[in-house]
Amino acid sequence: MTNVAPYGSWKSPITTELLTGGGVIGFDDVAVGEDGIYWLERRPHEGGRSVLVFRPDGGEPVDVVPRDFNVRTRVHEYGGGAFWLHGAVGWCSSFADGRIYRFDRPGAEPQAVTPEPPDPNVWRYADGSVTPDGRTVVCVRERHDVDGEVVNELVAFAADGSSEPHVIASGRDFYSAPRISPDGGQLAWTAWDDPLLPFEGTDLCVGDLGADGAVTGGRRVAGGTAESVVQPVWSPEGVLHFVSDASGWWNLYAEIDGDVRPVTEVDAELAPPQWIFGISTYAFLGDGRIAAIVTRRAVESIELVDPRTRTLTPLALPFNEYSAWSLEARGNTLVTVAASATEGPAVVTIDVGSASYDVVRRETAEQIDQRFVSHAEPIAFAGDGGESYAFYYAPTNPDYSAPEGELPPLILHVHGGPTAHTTSALNLAIQFYTSRGLAYVDVNYGGSTGYGREFRERLRGAWGIVDVRDAEAAARHLVENGRADSERMLITGGSAGGYTTLMAMGVSDVFAAGISEFGVADLITFHGETHKFEAHYDEYLVGKWPEQQDLYRERSPVTHAHDIAKPLLLLQGLDDKVVPPSQAEAIAAALEQNGVPYAYVAFEGEGHGFRGASAKRRAFEVTLSFMAQVFGFRAADDIEQIRIENLQPIAH
After folding, report:
1. Domain limits of the chain?
2. Which of 131, 354, 435, 487 falls between 20 and 30 A from 173, CA-CA?
3. pTM, to two decimals
4. Strand partners, 516
5. Per-residue pLDDT reduced to its tens digit, 443-455
6. Phi then psi for 484, rounded to 5 degrees?
């Protein structure tokens, strides 16, 4: 017999402790070594540091780095590509000072192989490769000079630190993915210039690599201002492969005898947008085939590519998301991070021949009672410019039912990027809310990836319009189908999703409340405040700067702050270099002046995205308290109630 209780007030076993406790980790890159596998795991209970872990063949996982070492890089601020291998030797970027350290074996004393910078993190390194003889490292370096200029370049240095880095490629605004051919004689890399971002247009270049790391005879293989080329990889036979969206979809290509030829020709994405370094979505198998992560309508699968016939054969696996965008191979065994509709992310090994898999490490050791899991329901609706998409999660708890006639409050989530996409894999943060009786919808609005370049281009020049209208359309679609309470709908998101949240609160009458996590508020000041990598991203999303400043002003949430009349919660990391705290503070000041219900919660020591366990826990508790007060239900959890100024709860 179930208990009858209002939506939102249900007691759930998916607690903040479960989501942020000592057993919870997160995963990033994976790699294969000569005698085992490696991965990066984020540990909220250790201050959110990233740890390189090694599992030897037939052994148990061990930490490679000491307890005070945080394996992260600040290049482009988003990082990625913070470690690389050659045999059993690893090189790691230290988040503390930005230097590269060498580890000759797991647990060995770290050896600095790049010079001590004049100030921590003014010299940053990422995305390295090692020559076949193990003597030279080639990687990306980002210099923050005393005059404020930020310079990106490719450098080479002795793998044992016996010589300092010297520049081997410069003059472009950005570099990525330096990859050395199997014979050590060639180097491939990608480069691009402002105002482009790597998902708009890049160049793939190749040059001859000398014994001293010098590059000569560089040439462009593919790319341009309207073609995004990513992930150059040399096959074991020395054939250069890469992913390009020349067809409108990110597909796999190869340069054979001087000609660029397609390896796949499918209406699907074989790469995500390159927001971080070290992305790896395809790998060469021992039998000549290529394993690839393929995305169709935001659902991901591993498929085997036969280069001779250009056919793709899906592996029969239960996973629908490969969350770290990492796929590595050793023979016919794959290593990746995977999740399914019922299981959260895990490091797994996959036997291609049998399509079987083994779990190496799970995100959380505690198993979730499947009766409390709400499964994603794909929905399509009429969006701005055509059909748009989302995943809907119904309130699910076997111990409760709602009073007859009551409709659930709705949380509408807007992903970041904004060129990213959400998936249907198990996400305990979503289940935290649905198991308490709240409906949840994750929207892939126009501009999201996973649907081809044409869908992605819907957002060009239309940020703050297409995303807001698609969010409204998704909410109305659910109301019309009896899936949500029209009077209790909340919009939320982080970063770019926070921007959409703030805009919607100012220009839309659909949502009764909003929660912005480190959202952009003032596009005028943001243009001058943000970091180099995204310095011109707003020109793609809004318009040409400075000629169209009036448009920037019109698309800024602060411009519409006087129209915000519904409760708003602002969450912000005080060390955020991507979206500085001044953005949230500008909105808070406007709401205070206008007497609008709001709360502003700042987190010391947190940057762009909360990593520490205490910050994550506090964010969940604050969010639940905010929604309970705004939507008029009593949370079953024993949490501290956040103070919301000028609040009048929605009558229900």
Report:
1. 368-631
2. 131
3. 0.92
4. 493, 570
5. 999 999 999 999 9
6. -155, 155
